[in-house]
């Protein structure tokens, strides 16, 4: 038993902290401190900056261009990243299609796509959900029909985050409707500029445009953009569910949010308001501690070479619940100060000004990436044998 | 970081589990529940033979130098077995207070506890001070001690007690015989035995005062944190059993022609319990290390967080265990309700949730001052 970081790890933290201090751009830092979301330009500048250090793809094995960090180092990096006010990186390229490509892709596919992800140059989006295939993903209907050296894709995807930013989409399509649902699904890479592909915005309740509908009408996708074989799509999708993501709980960003909220308590109108806010924050901090030590255990186990098991779904469930509770606390503690929606100048403490937007935005986090109810179904089956 | 238990701790835990499996059952528990004397001679001797009496204490004071982690391993198994043998009340609790007090008289008494020769309890709580153990209402005026102590957990058999009192504005720890007090004995929520003591001008000689002033404060505060960690260990053991039993029940109990574990709502309750249990284990590992940290602020913050968390989630697991068992869950004949009482008890002894939330907030403020 040892609950301390090693001296090497402490040195690593120091060097990352120093780098963050010198390199996180001021406009991005201010944006995060306001509780706002970075725009495309900020997100991409930040990811390219990390890419230039070789840190964007920190979870990748060294042979594919990862920096060779341990899970503990990656965890420390994430803590320092969040506390410096830098945004998390977009998961679609780095955490999703990248690992799919170096695990299932051909040599040509690796050469073609991995460098762009590593350098933060290619932006990806995820074409999974459809209007009638949400939690029941395997019932998806978007068709890809083989036609000589290409597929013709027809159908519709929905809830496609950042499709309006993306250069490429990785997409689950049906290539065979004569076999069992799961076996007829394939994994295709689709250029977002292909004719016949149309992106339409969906505005979410935070008032912003993150989500989209994507329509496919006879979209030509070259056969070399199929990953693995036809029919392997479901296997690949499942691989991603248990792919190691030791920062999935969002502990570092929850810390940052709690600290932001703490810094505003002095601005509350009365002593009673302050005391109640302090008490509420302490409750959240205690729950965060339990989540964080559970996360530490996963990190330590990963560094011992143990597989990242389904029990890590617990990190996602508890992490997203806590993100929502913290954002709700911020709105409720802000009270009247949380009500203005589109004003430039805050009517009170700055942090409450965007709090309700963030609160609205985070209602999605227990839904995306497999709703928490679906995660629980999976756990009940895989871990509890029910 | 490394969360693997040291080999020695694993051995201690295995031995405790095996010993209790062979020597203590739900029937033994029910039998003990109906006794007012909880010191069962054979098992008491067996625990002594296992080395448990010396384990919690440093080698320099005659113990075997076990860590808090080791003691938590035993207490976890005692909780899992619903065992009422007063190992904590008569060995660990008074022994640690005497060890922390670290005076010649306190260590002499500790010697007798380790040897299994003394039956001493701790009386650090009273009606007026509640959980605020550094401000007891008992008063030592000159040589006379007056006031009241309650929830003196003693297995029903202690003949001496360590009490805290204020002597002017100084905290003192005093050892005195039970028969110097008016004693009222009763059973507690978890089935264990305790007493209330009324002291009316009891004559206190110098050698009965073990420790005073800052030294007494430090000893009581270290004792409180240590006992908080043990509460968590005990609750964890109980929750582990409740979770396993409830999962097993959901797999086998049939209604509407199918097992109730096939219903999604029950599956989700059980997944919630699984995740909570994982987090409770994380908090237990954390507090088993930090609960005896030399950094007093870190120690206090860790024990406060752990107990506050347990008072919420450990209690929640046992409540849900009853709910999933349905009617049979609220009966005396099933163990589930007894675990619920044990966990509720442990969540209220040595500070309840609100008390520990306040401590956590204060520790955070102090931490900021240091930074």
Detailed description of the structure:
The complex is a heterodimer of chains A (386) and B (371). With 386 residues, chain A is α+β, with helices and mostly antiparallel strands. Chain A has three domains: 5-88, no CATH class; 123-230, Butyryl-CoA Dehydrogenase, subunit A, domain 2 (Beta Barrel), CATH 2.40.110.10; 249-382, Butyryl-CoA Dehydrogenase, subunit A, domain 3 (Up-down Bundle). In chain A, 46% of the residues lie in helices and 14% in strands. In chain A, the strands form two sheets. Chain A has a four-stranded mixed sheet with strand order 1-4-5-8. In chain A, strands 2-3-7-6 form a four-stranded antiparallel sheet, with no helix packed on it. In chain A, helix 9 runs antiparallel to helix 10. Chain A starts with 6 loop residues before the first helix and ends with a helix. In chain A, 40% of the residues are buried. The model of chain A has no long low-confidence stretch (mean pLDDT 95). Chain B is α+β, with helices and mostly antiparallel strands. Chain B folds into three domains: 7-114, Orthogonal Bundle (Butyryl-Coa Dehydrogenase, subunit A, domain 1); 120-212, Butyryl-CoA Dehydrogenase, subunit A, domain 2 (Beta Barrel), CATH 2.40.110.10; 215-370, Up-down Bundle (Butyryl-CoA Dehydrogenase, subunit A, domain 3), CATH 1.20.140. Helix content of chain B is 54%, strand content 16%. Chain B has eleven helices and ten strands. The longest helix of chain B has 40 residues, at 213-252. The A-B interface holds A 1-5, 72, 278-279, 282-283, 285-287, 289-291, 293-294, 296-297, 299-301, 311, 314, 317-318, 373, 376-377, 379-380, 383-386 and B 1-6, 9, 69, 247, 250-251, 261-262, 264, 266-268, 270-272, 274-275, 278-280, 282-283, 285-286, 288-290, 305, 308-309, 313, 357, 360-361, 364.
What is Rg of chain B?
21 Å
- What is the helix tally of chain A? 13
CATH architecture name of the largest domain in chain A: Up-down Bundle
Do you know the CATH architecture of the largest domain in chain B?
Up-down Bundle
**CATH C-level name of the largest domain in chain A:** Mainly Alpha
- Give the termini separation of chain B: 23 Å
Question: Reading side by side through the largest sheet of chain A, how are the strands ordered?
Answer: 1-4-5-8
Name the biggest interface: A-B, 36 and 40 residues
CATH class of the largest domain in chain B: Mainly Alpha
H/E order of the elements of chain A? HHHHHHEEEEEEEEHHHHHHH
* End-to-end distance of chain A: 33 Å
Helix vs. strand class of chain A: alpha+beta
State the total count of DSSP E strands of chain B: 10
What's the main sheet of chain B like?
A: 4 strands, mixed
Shape of chain A: globular
Strand content of chain A: 5-15%
What value does the average pLDDT of chain B take?
97
Binned strand content of chain B: 15-25%
- H/E element order of chain B: HHHHHHEEEEEEEEHEEHHHH
| Unreliable runs of chain B | none
Keywords (chain B): FAD, Flavoprotein, Oxidoreductase
Pfam families (chain B): Acyl-CoA_dh_1 (PF00441), Acyl-CoA_dh_N (PF02771)
Organism (chain B): Alcanivorax hongdengensis
Family (chain B): Belongs to the acyl-CoA dehydrogenase family.
């Amino acid at each position: 038993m040892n609950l301390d970081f090693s001296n090497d790890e402490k040195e690593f933290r120091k060097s990352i902290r120093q780098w963050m201090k010198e390199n996180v751009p001021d406009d991005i830092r201010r944006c995060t401190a306001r509780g706002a979301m970075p725009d495309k330009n900020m997100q991409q500048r930040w990811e390219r900056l990390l890419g230039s250090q070789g840190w964007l793809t920190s979870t990748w094995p060294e042979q594919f261009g990862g920096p060779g960090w341990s899970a503990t180092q990656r965890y420390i990096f994430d803590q320092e990243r969040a506390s410096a006010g830098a945004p998390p990186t977009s998961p679609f390229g780095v955490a999703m299609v990248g690992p799919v490509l170096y695990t299932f892709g051909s040599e040509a596919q690796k050469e073609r796509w991995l460098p762009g992800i590593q350098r933060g140059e290619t932006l990806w989006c995820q074409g999974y959900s459809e209007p009638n295939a949400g939690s029941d993903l395997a019932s998806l209907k978007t068709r890809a029909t083989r036609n000589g050296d290409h597929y013709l894709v027809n159908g519709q995807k929905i809830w496609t985050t950042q499709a309006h930013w993306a250069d490429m989409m990785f997409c689950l399509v049906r290539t065979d409707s004569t076999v069992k649902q799961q076996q007829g699904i394939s994994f295709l890479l689709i250029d977002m500029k292909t004719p016949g592909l149309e992106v339409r915005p969906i505005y979410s309740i935070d008032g912003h445009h993150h989500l989209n509908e994507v329509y496919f009408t006879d979209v030509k996708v070259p056969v070399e953009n199929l990953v693995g074989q036809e029919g392997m799509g479901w296997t690949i999708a499942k691989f991603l569910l248990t792919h190691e993501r030791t920062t999935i709980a969002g502990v570092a960003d929850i810390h940052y949010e709690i600290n932001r909220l703490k810094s505003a308590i002095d601005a509350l109108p009365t002593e009673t308001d302050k005391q109640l806010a302090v008490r509420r924050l302490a409750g959240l901090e205690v729950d965060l501690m339990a989540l964080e030590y559970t996360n530490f255990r996963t990190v330590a186990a990963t560094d011992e070479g143990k597989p990242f098991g389904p029990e890590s779904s617990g990190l996602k469930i508890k992490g997203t619940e806590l993100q929502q509770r913290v954002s709700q606390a911020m709105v409720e503690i802000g009270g009247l100060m949380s009500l203005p929606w589109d004003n430039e100048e805050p009517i009170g403490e700055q942090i409450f000004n965007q709090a309700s937007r963030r609160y609205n935005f985070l209602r999605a986090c227990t839904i995306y990436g497999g709703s928490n109810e679906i995660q629980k179904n999976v756990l009940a089956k895989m871990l509890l044998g029910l | 970081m490394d969360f693997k238990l040291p080999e020695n701790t694993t051995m201690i835990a295995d031995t405790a589990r095996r010993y209790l499996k062979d020597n203590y059952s739900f029937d033994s528990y029910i039998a003990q529940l109906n006794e007012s004397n909880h010191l069962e001679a054979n098992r008491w001797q067996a625990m002594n033979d296992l080395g448990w009496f010396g384990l919690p204490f440093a080698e320099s004071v005659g113990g075997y130098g076990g860590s808090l982690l080791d003691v938590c391993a035993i207490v976890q198994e005692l909780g899992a077995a619903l065992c009422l043998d007063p190992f904590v009340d008569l060995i660990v609790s008074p022994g640690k207070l005497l060890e922390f007090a670290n005076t010649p008289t306190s260590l002499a008494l500790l010697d007798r506890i380790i040897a299994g020769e003394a039956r001493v309890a701790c009386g650090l709580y009273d009606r007026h001070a509640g959980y605020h153990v550094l401000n007891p209402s008992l008063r030592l005026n000159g040589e006379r001690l007056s006031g009241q102590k309650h929830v003196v957990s003693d297995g029903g058999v202690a003949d001496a007690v360590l009490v805290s009192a204020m002597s002017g504005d100084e905290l003192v720890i005093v050892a005195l015989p039970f028969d110097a007090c008016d004693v009222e004995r009763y059973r507690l929520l978890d089935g264990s035995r305790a007493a209330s003591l009324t002291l009316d001008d009891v004559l206190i000689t110098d050698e009965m005062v073990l420790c005073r002033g800052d030294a007494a404060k430090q000893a009581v505060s270290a004792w409180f944190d240590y006992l908080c960690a043990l509460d968590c260990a005990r609750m964890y053991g109980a929750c582990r059993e409740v979770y396993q039993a409830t999962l097993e029940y959901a797999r086998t109990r049939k209604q509407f022609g199918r097992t109730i574990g096939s219903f999604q709502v029950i599956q989700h309750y059980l997944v919630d319990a699984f995740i909570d249990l994982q987090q409770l284990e994380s908090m237990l590992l954390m507090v088993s290390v930090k609960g005896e940290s030399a950094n007093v602020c870190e120690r206090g913050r860790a024990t406060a967080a752990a107990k506050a968390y347990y008072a919420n989630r450990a209690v929640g697991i046992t409540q849900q265990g009853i709910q999933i068992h349905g009617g049979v869950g609220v009966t005396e004949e099933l163990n589930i309700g007894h675990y619920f009482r044990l966990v509720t008890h442990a969540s209220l002894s040595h500070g309840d949730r609100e008390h520990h939330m306040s401590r956590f907030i204060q520790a955070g403020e102090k931490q900021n001052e240091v930074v």
